[in-house]
Amino acid sequence: MDNLPIKQKHQITLLQSLIPMLVLIVLLGINVFVYKDEALKGTNQFILLLGGLVAIGVGLYNKVEYEDIIKKITKNVRETTRAIYILLLVGALSGTWLLSGVIPTMIYYGLQILEPHIFLPACVIICSIISLATGSSWTTSATVGIALVGIGNTMGIPIGMVGGAVISGAYFGDKLSPLSDTTNLASAMAGTDLFTHIRYMLLTTVPTYVLTLIIFIILSFNLDITTTIDITDTLNAISSTFHITPWLFLVPVLVIVSILKKLKPILALLLGTLLGAVFALFFQPDIVALVGGETTLTPISAYKGVMNAITTDIAILSPMESLNSLFEAGGMKSMLNTVWLIICAMFFGGAMEAIGALKKITASLLSIAKTTFGLFASTMSSCVIVNLTASEQYLSIVVPGKMFTKAYKERGLAPENLSRALEDSGTVTSVLIPWNTCGAYHSGVLGIDTFTYAPYAFFNIISPFVSLVYVALNIKIKRLLQPTKNTKRGL
Predict the structure, then answer these.
(1) H or E element: which one contains 314?
(2) d(Cα 426, Cα 409) in Å, to the nearest integer?
(3) In whole angstroms, how far apart are CA 408 and each of 281, 378, 401?
(4) How far apart are the C-alpha atoms of 482 and 488, rounded to whole Å?
(5) Rg for the chain, CA atoms, rounded
(6) DSSP assigned state of 426
(7) pLDDT tens figures, 295-320
(8) Under a CB-based contact definition with an 8 Å cutoff, are residues 69 and 355 in contact?
C-alpha cells in the first residue's frame, strides 16, 4: 500500500490541485476570525475534513477511484498511531510531574536566577526553564510572563524588550520540550520519532538561543536598571503549596539519561510518568490526597489522585492567584484536541495525496527549488505563508509537513530534516503575526501589541535564518541510506 495505484483518466492540473488548499485556507481564516482561540477545540478539525471532501470531489472529477482515496487516508491515519500514543503519554507525564512537584520545583529555582542588572537575559532563561518544564509557551506567558512584564515596566525597561525576552524564552521551550504539542506534531508530520527530532533541533536551536542571549545582554548593558526585584512572595507561595526539594530533579534527570541510552520514546515517557507518580506519593502526599478527593492519603485516595493526574484535568490552588493557572494540568485528556487535529489532518493530507494534488503542488515548487537549499527554503516559506493566511500555528506544521514529506525522501533526506524545518519556521513565526492565534493570544495576555514586541523576539526572528545557514553550508544535513525506501521505526 506504500505506492497505491491511482486510476486517473487524465492527470490533475495545478489549478485543480490548489482548489482544496485555497478552500481550506479561506474556511480556516473565517473560522479563526469567528472562534479565535476556541477554533482549536474542534471547528478547525472539521474544516480539515471539509477540505478533504473538496479534495475527494476533485479526485472523483478526475476519475480517481473512491476506494483508492479511502485506502490512502486509512494508511495515513495508521502511520500516526505511534505519535498519538506519544501525545497521550506526554499528557500523562505532565500531570504526574505537576502532582509530584517537579514542575513547581523547576519554576522555584528558575525564578532565583533573576538579577536586576541582567534582567532581560534573565527573563529569557526563566521563561526557557518554565516552558521546557510545561511544554507550553502560552502557559509561560500567562503566568511568569505577566509577572516579568510588570516588573520590567516598573523598572522602566522598554515594554517591547521585555515582551521580546519573554516570547524568546517561551518559544525556546515550546520548540524543545517533549511535553510540547508542536514538537510532537512536527515529528509526527515528518515521520520521525520525538527524541530524534529534539536532538536534531538542538543543532540549530542552541546557537540561535546563544545569539539571543548575547543580544539581550548587550541591550542590558545600555539600560539603567536601579530598581530591586522582590520575588519573595512568589517563592513563598510556591513553597507553601508544594514540598520543594532538589531531589525532585531526579525524575527529569533519569528520564534524560534513559533517552540518552536510546530507550524508545514511548518507554521513556512511560518511565517519566511512573517516576512522577512515585515521587508524588513520597513528597506531595497531601496534594495527592486532595486530587484524589480526600483530605488524607489512603490507598484509595492515592490511586485516584495519581490516576486523575494521568488521565484528566487537575488544578492545585496556591496562595497567589496569579500562579494558579501554572499549577494546572490536563493529563491525557488535554491531548485529545491535538490527536483529533492529527487524524483530521491525515484525512485532508491522504485525500490530497491520493488524487495526486500534493505531488503536483510539490513538483511545481521543486521545479523552482532544484537544490537542497531550495527545498528547505520552500518548506520554510510555506510554513510562514500558512501562518500568515490560515492564522494557525498547528496548520503551518500540518499542511507543509504533509506536502513535503515525499519530496524529502526522494531527495534522500532523513525525515528529521523536515521536522526541524517545520519547527524552525512554522512554530516560531506564528507569534510574530498579529492575526495569528498565537500572536493574538500572547499580545492579549502580556498586554503588549504584537508589533511592539516582535522586533525584540530575537529567538523567533533568528531561528529560520540559522536553519537556512546550516543548509547553505551543508552542516548536519542527515541523509537516508536508501532515499526511496520507507524505513520502519520502533515504538
Answers:
(1) strand 314-315
(2) 20
(3) 47, 12, 10
(4) 12
(5) 23
(6) I
(7) 899 999 999 999 999 999 899 988 88
(8) yes
Q: List CB contacts of 162: < 8 A, sequence separation 6 or more.
A: 120, 123, 148, 149, 152, 153, 448
pLDDT digit string, tens, across residues 362-420: 777 777 777 889 889 989 988 888 777 666 678 788 888 888 888 888 888 999 999 99
- Say what angle helices 43-61 and 66-79 make with each other, to 10 degrees: 140
Rounded to whole angstroms, the Cα distance separating 131 from 115 reads 20
Cα–Cα distance measured from residue 481 to residue 474, given in angstroms and rounded to the nearest whole number: 17
Question: Cβ(224)–Cβ(305) under 8 Å?
Answer: no
Distance, CA of 62 to chain centre: 37
The CA distance from 326 to 174, in Å, is 15
Task: Return the exposure string of 115-130: e unless at least 16 CB atoms fall within 10 Å of the residue's CB, then b.
Answer: eeebbbbbbbbbbbbb
SS3 322: helix
CA distance 30 to 490: 40
Residue 30's contacts (CB-CB under 8 Å, 6 or more residues apart) are none
Going 421 to 427 to 428 to 429, the CA torsion angle's sign is: positive
What is the C-alpha to C-alpha distance for residues 166 and 141, in angstroms, rounded to an integer? 7
Q: How far apart are CA 265 and CA 274, in angstroms?
A: 14
**Lookup result for grid cell 515550546:** 174
Asked whether 252 and 104 are in contact (CB, 8 A), the reply is: no
Contact between 329 and 314 (Cβ < 8 Å): yes
